[in-house]
Design goal:
The chain has 93 residues and is mainly alpha-helical. The chain contains 3 helices and no strands.
Length: 93
Amino acid sequence: MATRRTDSPPAKPDQTAAKAPIRRAARSKPKTLADPPSPAMSEQARRTMIAEAAYYHAERRGFAPGGEEQDWLRAEAEVDVLLKTAAHGRRPQ
């Protein structure tokens, strides 16, 4: 990383600044699973969620051939419901 050079010497710290109280940043509440995701979820993130859910459906079927499309459609419906209920601040049932 490059450093910035200046021709002037560094400024001396202000003596009164050292006596000023230290202000802490407001703490934000920690995120929990109940917190909804950001409303502007990218299409790529949605697709990743669907792919993961479809994989688990296929795993439950024993990865038998012929059910891939059904796994994907089922996963897509589940993820869409999850995202819709999370956007409205409700928990999925």
